[in-house]
Each structure stands twice: as C-alpha cells, then as structure tokens.
Design goal:
The chain is of the alpha/beta class. Helix 4 (84-92) links the parallel strand 4 and strand 5. It has 2 domains: 3-119, Rossmann fold, CATH 3.40.50; 127-222, Orthogonal Bundle (Arc Repressor Mutant, subunit A), CATH 1.10.10.10. The chain is built from 8 helices and 12 strands. The protein starts with a strand and ends with a strand.
C-alpha cells in the first residue's frame, strides 16, 4: 500500500480522489494549498504526490521546487492547463507525469500505479562504471566522482533503460513506452527534457555530452 499526498484546492475533487485512492488500497493524505502540501510532505513522508498546479497560495511549480531538493518519489501533476509549454515546464521542474483536467479516474489510477512501479526497487543488477560516474542498478544509486547524485524516479527509469543497452541505439518510441507507457509514444518532448536533466547531473560538459548521445529523429545512445 502506497501513501499518497493529494494536493488540490477543489474540495469536491479532493474528496473524490480520497475516496477512489482509498478504494484502490492507498493511504491518503490531503492538502488544499501549496504551503500545507509542503508541510504534509515533510511530516507524512508520502510515497507519491498528486499535485494540482493551480493552487491559491503557490503555483504548483513552486511546490515542486520545494519538494525536489529532498523528495525522490514520483509526482503526478494535475492541471487544467493543456498547453504543451505548461507540460514541459512542469516536467522540467521535476514532475514525473502530467494529467490534464478533466480526467478519467481509471486512467489516473493506472498512471499512479505506473509511477509507483517506476519508483520501486528492482532485482539485483550489475554496476555500470564510466570515467565520471557509476550507476549501481541494484542499489538504484548514481555516484559522480564518488558523491551520490539524487535522481527522480523518472530520471532513474530513463537512465537505467539506456545503461542496460551500452552502445545500442534505443529508439524514441521504445524509451517512451518503457518509461511512460504506450499512451506516450508521441511525447518526444519528454525525452528532451529528461535527457537534458540527466546530462546536467552526470556529464562533465552537458553541452557536449560524452556518454548520453542524441541520434536526431531516432533515439538515444549510452556510450560507456
């Protein structure tokens, strides 16, 4: 059972989400605004956060900025904003998924399950070592020059897909299906955002990547 923090200023939607998530077997904590959300996140230690962007006191991206320095669990954004720029901004701020209102509850629950799976520990795997960083697939841990680097669950899922196929071109569609699911086959902007984040964290020169390469129009390649 996962503990879910739901953040939304609409009391009717908050109630509906609480009922549906509890019926699906989750423990639910709620917050009606951004300030309360940050307080509850620190005190309740949720496994996943469902976050509305349009809050009365803080924008959702500000809440993300407050969460991401320490919270490593998945964050699913809910928003009535459907513009692709808003989606990219939320993903760039640290969201793992973006659900546009109005949404189907069954789809939201499916995306929540997928996000929790991506954040769950996997079976034992080898350690991948480069000159600048090390990826321990069993411990789900990345070190750069010996120091642990925090990755979000989606960043980890994307990196692990690439490092498990050293030297091989991994197609855009394959990556999108593996990390986000079949419904995201056309969301190539997700890949651009997350690869940029990984390069900033791992590459010695992010503008001239040595390990995480883009094959324009085709996919990405990890070169040890």
């Amino acid at each position: 059972m996962s503990r879910v923090l739901v953040v939304d200023d609409d009391p009717h939607l908050l109630r509906a989400l609480r009922i549906s998530l509890r019926a699906a077997g989750h423990e639910v904590v709620t917050a009606p605004d951004g300030t309360t959300a940050l307080h509850e996140a620190a005190g309740a230690h949720p496994d996943v956060v469902v976050l509305d962007l349009g809050l009365p006191d803080l924008d959702g991206t500000e809440v993300l900025a407050g969460l991401r320095p320490w919270f490593t669990g998945p964050v699913l954004v809910l928003s009535a904003r459907s513009d692709s720029r808003d989606k990219v901004d939320a993903l760039d701020a640290g969201a793992d998924d973006y659900v546009t209102k109005p949404f189907d509850m069954a789809e939201l629950l499916a995306r929540l399950r997928a996000a929790v799976r991506r954040g769950a520990d996997g079976p034992g795997e080898p350690v991948v070592t480069t000159e600048h960083f090390t990826v321990d697939l069993a411990a789900r841990q990345v070190r750069v020059d010996g120091a642990i680097v925090r990755l979000t669950p989606t960043e980890w899922a994307l990196l692990s897909e690439l490092v498990r196929a050293p030297g091989r071109l991994v197609g855009q569609r394959e990556l999108l299906q593996s990390v986000w699911g079949p419904a995201y086959e056309r969301e190539t902007n997700y890949l651009r955002v997350y690869l940029a984040q990984l390069r900033r964290k791992l590459e010695p020169d992010p503008a001239n990547p040595r390990y995480l390469h883009t094959e324009p129009g085709m996919g990405y390649r990890f070169t040890p």
